Fold this protein.
Amino acid sequence: MMAALSDWYRQPHDFEWVLTHRSTRPLHSVVRAVFAAGTLLFALCSVVMLFSSHGPSGTISTTWVWVLLVVQIMVAVRWCIGPMPGRRGFIAFALFGDVGLASMLVLYDPVGALIGSVLFAVTGAFCTYFLSPRWLVAHVSFSTAVIIGFAVYAHRGAVEDPATIVAGVLVVLAGVNGVPLFAHVAWTAISRDARRAALDSLTGLYNRRGMDSALTDLWEHAQQRRWDVAAVVIDIDKFKRVNDQYGHAAGDRVIVSVADGLTEYVLATLPVETDRRGRRRTDTAAASVTSVLARTGGEEFLAVLAAPPGDIQDRIDGLGPALGADDARPVPVTVSIGAAILTPESALREMGLPALERLIRSADTMMYRAKKQGGDRVLCTAL
């Protein structure tokens, strides 16, 4: 039990995966609407409590309520009309929800504060699906401390008997923190399996299923920037001889070494990408929309690359030396490479995403031509 919880807590969290997964992309508007509505719910409760005997009183308290109300409306509008936030935006929203709610509840009497603590469930739901286990634990710890603090406040005020206060706190904690924790553990396991299902278990590259989803992002990125797109098919020469002579374990090691070499080369030759502030990006986020690497067969790989016009040919030419015979490999092998380039001016671009299928078939044809010419070479064509 503790080992499972420890494994869950240490899980790396991909903030972008939830939003970029094919099944969740159509739900972006729904997600924004849900959290905009949740923010407005906070605002509505704050206003209603101004007229409650359990709510805030005094000029300073009332002013703070109105200040928070304005901020909450601004945040709700941001959810409605702005793009989906990134990692920092998610964290900022969670902090705003927790700290803002706590600052409001301290203005209420003990009964109002305990009732209002149920709103921590809204932030908890957000943390469940969009933040890491560490941030969820931070939220749970904070909300638990606040709720217990209000319980002590209620006990000292003698507003209810101790048994009623304890029972109320347990009910609130179960709903506010128990459900998000359980849901996050399950969600983490499911999302981890979903990510693994898109990857080849031997090399860690995409399999065909994962490749299809990733190609959509690459194509849209290239279309927006009017970049060249290239499909590159790579096949290990005389691989059957490797298996027959050295065994399948050695063959697997050769496949992994070629996959690693392909990954290293592509990452080292990424086109320059900049973020919203003009800073250079050469991270995994940039790689995911400019290159898709997949193992498409036993000893066959596919790389689909996007780059500014004029750059992509050099990247293709460099693949041969990068993946050629290497004494560091378990067994020295060569590769046959076929490539096809789709320029922004090509009429095939008007086909949309199906143009990639034709591009890949052309690259496959060039790879077989390279093999027929003896292998250990790169052949390229343009469409």
Notes: The first helix runs from residue 2 to 9. The CA atoms of residues 152 and 328 lie 67 Å apart. Confidence is low (pLDDT under 50) at residues 276-284.
